[in-house]
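Below is one protein, fold included:
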Amino acid sequence: MRKIKAIIEKGSDGLYSIYLPDVFGIYGAGETESEAKVALFEAVDSAKEYVDETGEWGAYRVFKPDFEFDFRYDLSGFNLFLQNRYQFFSLTFNLKSF
């Protein structure tokens, strides 16, 4: 079974996004990782519908049968999110201690 790399990121705003570095324009986003995955699967379904309507596979040939996603985390985004959270909690704690 062919694997397609999918990168999971968490933005500084706390939202998740997933993109496919090898397939332009296919991504998902959401408030949770699960929501982002659902949005990604919906984007893939839309790409397949486009292929069904036009007969043109183009970059979407990677979605031919027998593929699965290889989800990987971009930890730099998670680290930035955690740093921002730590700074917020640190600021909150410092203000409450007065």
